[in-house]
């Protein structure tokens, strides 16, 4: 099982990049002038990077939802799950 962890991490990172590209495209198509920040990090570094606590943490699939749930609990914010 431990040999699968690096493969899962690469897969998740690829999915995050694809999600970010799709989000940026849709934001642009809707004429919005915002830039979402997708971070893969730990709670303290996340808060430091954002210079604030996020309002919402989104999880994707089982592993992503677990991480999102743990981060949301630690930061005291709302967590949502995406099931596609």
Automatic annotation (TrEMBL):
Q: Which UniProt keywords apply?
A: Glycosyltransferase, Transferase
Extract the Gene3D superfamilies matched here. Glycogen Phosphorylase B
Q: Which reaction does it catalyse?
A: an NDP-alpha-D-glucose + D-fructose = a ribonucleoside 5'-diphosphate + sucrose + H(+)
Q: Which residues form the Sucrose synthase first GT-B domain?
A: 8-40, 41-82
- Could you tell me the superkingdom of the organism this chain comes from? Eukaryota
Q: What is its EC number?
A: 2.4.1.13
User: If you read the UniProt record, what top EC class would you report for this enzyme, in one word?
Assistant: transferase
Family listed: Belongs to the glycosyltransferase 1 family. Plant sucrose synthase subfamily.
Q: What is this protein called?
A: sucrose synthase
Please name the source species.
Platanthera guangdongensis
